[in-house]
Design a protein that fits this description.
The structure is a single chain. The longest helix is centred in the first third of the chain and has 30 residues. Strands 1-2 form a two-stranded antiparallel sheet. The chain is built from 2 helices and 2 strands. It is mainly alpha-helical. The chain has a domain of 32 residues.
Length: 97
């Protein structure tokens, strides 16, 4: 009985170690994406365009916003495909009813 309790305690200890190591890796991964605001010194993620504390403009690191022309083209294609799907669904419903 004592041996099974020791094994369970060992398993729990190993699980706690794995969880701690996982938490440390996640924290380090998050810290690699943190930048400091040049205006107020607050920390912000590297993809943000405004500081969450003071609202100052930040230059995103490794992130380039999509240009408006491409965004409009994607939106137009998406709406067209959606409209075609709706029309096909309506036609199929009327045919099979």
């Amino acid at each position: 009985m004592a041996a099974s309790e020791e094994k369970r305690a060992e398993r729990e200890a190993r699980k706690k170690e794995r969880d701690a190591a996982r938490a440390k890796r996640q924290y380090e991964r998050l810290r690699s994406h943190v930048v400091t605001c040049p205006a107020c010194g607050a920390e912000a993620l590297d993809h943000m365009t405004k500081c969450p504390k003071c609202g100052a403009a930040l230059t995103p690191v490794g992130y380039k916003p999509m240009d408006e022309k491409r965004k409009k083209r994607i939106r137009a294609v998406t709406y067209t495909v959606g409209a075609v799907i709706v029309v096909v669904a309506i036609v199929l419903v009327t045919i099979f009813n």
